[in-house]
Automatic annotation (TrEMBL):
Name of this protein: Hydroxymethylpyrimidine/phosphomethylpyrimidine kinase
Organism in which the protein naturally occurs: Fictibacillus terranigra
Stated family: Belongs to the ThiD family.
Entry keywords, A to Z: Kinase, Thiamine biosynthesis, Transferase
InterPro entries reported in the protein's UniProt record: HMP/HMP-P_kinase_dom (IPR004399), PM/HMP-P_kinase-1 (IPR013749), Ribokinase-like (IPR029056)
Enzymatic reactions: 4-amino-2-methyl-5-(phosphooxymethyl)pyrimidine + ATP = 4-amino-2-methyl-5-(diphosphooxymethyl)pyrimidine + ADP; 4-amino-5-hydroxymethyl-2-methylpyrimidine + ATP = 4-amino-2-methyl-5-(phosphooxymethyl)pyrimidine + ADP + H(+)
């Protein structure tokens, strides 16, 4: 009997469907993994911004995790918006206790429109409890700066940040390049603990980039669930997000979502 690869997202819900749980599940589906979710917060959100956040009580987050643990253990998982130190500590304790493997940590902090998706005091919890469990950590540049306490202004700065995050316990790190200046190609840097690899990209000049980070991390988790190596997984994720940004859907009047169908359509 074939073993269906299962991927789990532990993240917030985006009512607009472009980021969070919704983006993750679409990505899992497109890459051939069976998607499951543990919802940590409900956001009222659209392409114009975040209008409200309602965290899920930590007991209910843990119930969702237990339901999955008892019956549907995933081959890989990703974390996104975790919102509070309390949720981070509880999720990390569960992953540690049950020895869940292939953990992709997207250290979501701030939405494109500026809304805080992580409480200020939760950053330390992220560093102390979750980052040491990360198989692959995927900060954007501002997140890498916040986690390391160092500003990043050069390629060397990104390499140093990756090494510092490795010292914090993450096995591998992708420092994403979406926030580089507009004249620069969005090259992501993948550090496997020994070597730096470049994930080449072509900048698309578009406001339709809502959920790029979520989609990228979810694609890595899906590939790990399918049994691909981390290097293969990050390369596929880069191609997936490049296709998704390059074929926008033109939905909403603000930062529109990316196109999760584009990758599979182009493979066909
Ligand atoms: N305008 C763009 N054109 C092409 N790729 C992009 C663009 N913006 C972001 N990316 C890519 O999307 C992924 C997510 O990057 P980033 O925007 O840095 O993360 P986040 O959404 O977490 O802020 C990365 O692979 C990055 O290189
Ligand atoms: C519920 C939820 N989770 C995460 C995000 C942030 O997603 P990201 O992929 O970093 O995309 P942008 O917010 O930068 O568009 C979110 N907005 N909502």
């Amino acid at each position: 009997m074939l073993n269906t690869p299962k991927a789990l997202t532990i993240a917030g819900s985006d009512s607009g469907g472009g980021a969070g749980i919704q983006a993750d599940l679409k990505t899992f589906q497109e890459l051939g993994a069976y998607g499951m979710s543990v919802i940590t917060a409900i956001t009222a959100q659209n392409t114009l911004g975040v209008q409200g956040i309602h965290p899920v009580p930590v007991e209910m987050v843990m119930k969702q995790l237990k339901s999955i643990e008892d019956d549907l253990r995933p081959e890989a998982l990703k974390t996104g918006m975790l919102f509070s130190a309390e949720i981070i500590e509880a999720v990390a304790a569960h992953l540690r206790k049950h020895g869940w493997k292939n953990v992709v940590v997207d250290p979501v902090m701030i939405a494109k429109g500026g809304a805080d998706l992580l409480q200020e005091d939760a950053v330390e919890a992220l560093k102390k409890h979750l980052i040491p469990l990360a198989t692959i950590l995927t900060p954007n540049i501002p997140e890498a700066e916040r986690l390391t306490g160092k500003s990043i202004c050069s390629r060397k700065g990104r390499e140093d940040a990756a090494k510092l995050l490795h010292e914090l316990g993450a096995r591998m790190i992708v420092i994403k390049g979406g926030h580089l200046t507009l004249d620069k190609a969005p090259v992501d840097l993948f550090y496997d603990g020994e070597h730096m690899h470049e994930l080449q990209g072509r900048r698309v000049d578009t406001p339709q980039t809502h959920g790029t980070g979520c989609t990228f991390a979810a694609a890595i988790a899906a590939e790990l669930a399918l049994g691909k190596t981390p290097l293969h997984a990050v390369h596929t994720a880069k191609t997936f997000i490049q296709e998704a940004i390059s074929h926008p859907l033109h939905i909403g009047s603000g930062h529109g979502p990316t196109n999760h169908w584009a990758y599979r359509r182009n493979q066909a």
